[in-house]
Every structure is written in C-alpha cells, then in structure tokens.
Amino acid sequence: MLNLNIFEMGLVAAGGLFLLSLLIGAFFIWIGAKLARIPKRTFGRAIIAALASSVATWLVAWIFSFFPGSPWWSLIGAVVGLLVVLAVFKSVFDTTWGKAFLIWLLQVVAIFLAIVIAAFTFAAALII
Hints:
Elements lengths: L5 H30 L7 H22 L6 H23 L3 H31 L1
Helix pairs in contact: 1-2, 1-4, 2-3, 3-4
C-alpha cells in the first residue's frame, strides 16, 4: 500500500494531468498532420511536437515577460510564439511552412471544438 503525503499526491496528480494534456494535444496535432496529408505523421512524432511546442511556447512567454507592458510587445510575443511553434512542427514532421501552419490551424480548431463540447457538457450537467 502506498503511503503518500498530501504534497506527493499533488505531484502525482499534476504529473498525471500533464501527461493527459500532452496526449490530448498530441492527438489533435496528429489529426492536423493527418488532415494536412503529411507523409511522416506518426503519433510518436505528434507527442514530440506537442512536448517541444509546449516548451518553446513557455520559453517565448518567459522571455517576453521581461519586456514592459506595451500591447505591442504582447503582439510581437504572440507572433514570435506562433513562428516558433510552426518551426517545431516543420522540423518534427519534416514538412513545409504551409503544412506546419495547417497543422497548427487544425489543432486550434480541434481544441476550440473540444472546449465548446466540454462547456456544453458541463452546462448540461448543471441544468440537470
């Protein structure tokens, strides 16, 4: 029997949620790569792309957090973040910039749909 304290249980839960979010993100990236008809699409590459794009996004956000609070810096940071994610997709799937953008776009649409479905599911649960 495991005897975990509250901190250890929190770490296990956080690790599980991170793994779950990584797999869900990889699934959407894989679907985007499939719809973009990329030849080297595998779920393993999608997991690598999800992890690498997450780390890259965190790093870009961290770097741009040091700039003053001008809205222009936020816009520049968002564009740089998008370009970095596209570069990750391009590199991992060995594809063109256009197909990398298509993966990203389809991933955004899929995530939006998942959020909408989850919101309606949650709202329906509140009504009942």
